[in-house]
Amino acid sequence: MKKTIFLFFCLFTLNLISFGQAQKKFTHLPVFDIHVHTMKVNPNWGAPMCPWFLSNMPGTDPNLPMVDITNVDCVDPLLPAKSDEEMQDEVIKRIHDFNMTMVAFGDAEILYNWVNAAPPGRIIPGIGLNKASELTVEAFRDSLSNGFYKVMAEVAPQYEGLSPSDMSLDPYFAIAEEFGIPVGIHMGTGGNGQANTYQPSYRASMGNPFLLEDLLARHPKLKIWVMHAGYPMLEEMIALMGANAYVYLDISGFIWSYPLDEIHYYIKRLVQAGFGKRIIYGTDFMIWPELFETSMRVIESAQYLSEDQKRDILFNNAVRFFNMDKSMFDWPKN
Ligand SMILES: [Zn+2]
């Protein structure tokens, strides 16, 4: 259970795919989820989950058992899919129901299955890494060369205690820049006690958005988005985006795990600071299908956002970030 919970902070351009031709009619305004994990179902650590469970961050003592922050004491916990088939069916159903397009990454077999089962172009595949030892530079280049992967994500050096500007990762970013592939980098969020438990190498300081500056300076054509909005480093995030006009962010993960008031405060400040056109919706979906609806409602219910601002976050900003053509999405159509 804990592993499940902690993994959510997790891991993981487009010559775009031709959308359109084979699609069924959609009735929902289009939604773009830029942060979806493809995971194999593991019955040993799949468990129900209460959204916003990090509303309580209790401390503990190194000589005592770790505090269990997982919380299923809510009226309606989200239930995990019980099999790979159920997971895939639930994801594909939501692509149809919510007219959804998603960037997905993680387990390659699951990813291929989803791409084959989804309407054309609705799942945009990504490939990521956290450190150089996971994948050689040559293998990474080969992976991008075959054209299947359109995005480099999720890249999460923070879990290894590395800065995203660490030179060991530079050759990979250089390839992404060469191919014109956008890169999603995990910055910030780590739950409660991450460094004490599953990720001893995790460093909160390596999630500082300012650590992206050297990388961006070395690769002026590289397009990145900051995953998890660099939470909780709001001021640094605002400063970074002010200095770097190509940088976008996603609001995945923290929108369903941290306290709701905190989430709305953070998003409101980003909009108030002028970045409403660079906030991209994302879930950090892992194993709970209803997480899609739960996360979407956070934006749909935000009283400080106009309807236009909600549409920007839920869809338009991603389309602009990926240089896609809105006409590829067939809403409304009856
Ligand atoms: Zn992440």
Compute the separation of the termini in Å: 44 Å
Strand line-up in the sheet with most strands: 1-2-3-4-5-6-7-8
Question: Over the alpha carbons, how many angstroms does the gyration radius reach?
Answer: 19 Å
Heterogens: zinc ion
Summed up, the domain count is: 1
> Which structural category do the helix and sheet elements fall into?
alpha/beta
Tally of alpha and pi helices: 11
Topology-level CATH name: TIM Barrel
Instruction: Assign the CATH architecture.
Output: Alpha-Beta Barrel
Uncertain parts: 1-23
CATH class group:
Alpha Beta
Strand content: 5-15%
Query: What best-fitting shape do the alpha-carbon axes yield?
Result: globular
CATH homologous superfamily heading: Metal-dependent hydrolases
List SSEs in N-to-C order: HEHEHEHEHEHEHEHHEHH
Outline of this structure?
The protein is an alpha/beta fold and 334 residues long. It contains eleven helices and eight strands. Strand 1, helix 2 and strand 2 (100-106) form a beta-alpha-beta unit.
Topology:
Blueprint: H1 2-6, E1 31-38, H2 84-97, E2 100-106, H3 108-117, E3 123-127, H4 137-145, E4 151-155, H5 170-179, E5 183-186, H6 213-218, E6 224-227, H7 234-243, E7 248-250, H8 254-257, H9 260-272, E8 279-280, H10 291-300, H11 307-321
Parallel strand pairs: 1-2, 2-3, 3-4, 4-5, 5-6, 6-7, 7-8
Helix pairs in contact: 2-3, 4-5
How does this model look, in words?
The chain has 334 residues and is an alpha/beta fold. The protein has a single domain, classed as TIM Barrel. Strands 1-2-3-4-5-6-7-8 form an eight-stranded parallel sheet. Helix 7 links the parallel strand 6 and strand 7. Helix 2 packs across helix 3 and helix 4 packs parallel to helix 5. The longest helix has 15 residues. The N and C termini lie far apart (44 Å). The N terminus is likely disordered. The structure holds zinc ion (ZN). Zinc ion binds next to loops.
